[in-house]
Design brief:
By secondary structure, this protein is of the alpha+beta class. The chain has 8 helices and 12 strands.
Length: about 280
Amino acid sequence: MTILPSPPAFDPALVSRAFEVAGRLANDAADVIIATAGRGAHPEPTESPFDWVTDTGRTLERHTRRVLADEFPGIPVFGEEFDAAPATGAEHRAATPGSARFRWSVDPVDGTANYAAGLPWCAYSLAMLDEHGPVVGVVADPYRAQIHAAARGRGMRANGRPVRLSEQRETRAGIVCTELTKNGPWRGMDRFISNAASAQVGVRLLGSPALAITQVALGHAVAAVLDSYQEWDVAGALLLATESGATVLDRCGRPAALPPDGLLVAAPGAATEVHDWWRQATTGC
């Protein structure tokens, strides 16, 4: 398998400060989400429940932007709630040539429908990225009182505890996570689920891309397959996964820090098998 080249070194003091500030923001967001979830809010008739903005999401993103602007002036922030033209990772890199070496990407409530219904499966996700992908990433899992954090080359931690996946992982009797697109099931999803079932693997759709990937990083799921997403949905969790030892592949099975269109995150030893199920279920890559 092709190995990604090592990114160039960066200022360790900047990364340490970004790691600390991101963790603080994740803790703040977790408190707000727990305090406000499940209050019966519903999307307007003109709003899609799969692409919905809540007052909590706006408030958390404003707070995140204010803090980051104070702490890291000159580093742009992209977020789900206030960027009118969201883009995937590759499009973000093309959209801001030369504007700054780094950028922040935030999803204040990943899993909005779950949050509004009071279902205990949503997250706050924040990442600092450079041209090579995520440098610092945090994912807050409020309902389990967990802050998952990672910095490139420094490993992943869950509430301060180091997390590292074992080298081998059998897929049988495991769980693979995926998510619907905004328009429903992705093309080939039914066959992918059938392929996994034939291998005695269950597939779960839980409503938060960030938490889906985080389950792989924690060793709870053998893989996560996402057919579409925005950068802020996945950037923080992808760094958790790579720093815990998981494999990240694009749609064609190539290693990528932040695939621009379709991704597979898998435990060591599971990536090839799960990618085969995905490849067989779709045409082309």
